[in-house]
Amino acid sequence: MSNLQSDILTGTMFVIGLVGFISGEFIISSTLFASATLVSTVNANRKSI
Fold first, then answer.
1. For residues 3 and 23, what is the distance between their CA atoms, to the nearest angstrom?
2. End-to-end alpha-carbon separation of the chain, Å?
3. Under a CB-based contact definition with an 8 Å cutoff, are residues 35 and 13 in contact?
4. How many CB atoms lie within 10 A of CB 34?
5. Per-residue model confidence as pLDDT tens digits over 2-39
């Protein structure tokens, strides 16, 4: 996955999680925030190797 695709995926998950948090869907938003963090961390570690 290219850097642009990864950034778009992470940003989209974060925005959807934020909208879910505002609307009261706390479980879904927590899952989306966690997955956005995981994708970001994996990509950062992959670039450093």
1. 30
2. 16
3. yes
4. 12
5. 778 878 888 888 888 888 888 888 888 888 888 888 88
